[in-house]
Amino acid sequence: MNIRLDKFTLVVLAVVGILALTAVILVNRSGNSDELQAYRTEDVPETPVYNAFLAFRKGDIATARAQYSSRVLEEVAGEAGYGPLRGESYLSDETARRLRVLQVNPDPQDAQRAYVTVAIDMYATGGLFEGGSTWSSERTVEVIRENETWKINAQEYFY
To answer: What is the reported pTM?
Structure first.
């Protein structure tokens, strides 16, 4: 049996093949986005917020600690401390997370202080018909200049 395809069918099959190949490449490139992301080095108020979020996601507590002010690290060491900087476990579930910086507001009375508003988007698998769920939380984090760099000045762990 000799099958002969017309030009239209060949074009449709080629387009479908290209789309399938593109989908496979994109899925493989974005498989583990935490490993692909790098810490930021810019001297801007949102840098420690982004770096701490990423460090907690990677389990890099030493880098996370470096993003916090000395006042926060002293609090963590004392009675008022809690969370992963103290050695307590951090949320390590299968929830995918993304941090978006929404706004940076410098303090008008203090040039060494700013407030960074972020949204944390979370995606969880499962649910009815394995549809998963998506939700976001928004928060404002105080950052200060300390030793010529921006530092988080609150016990914010991006839960």
So the answer is: 0.71
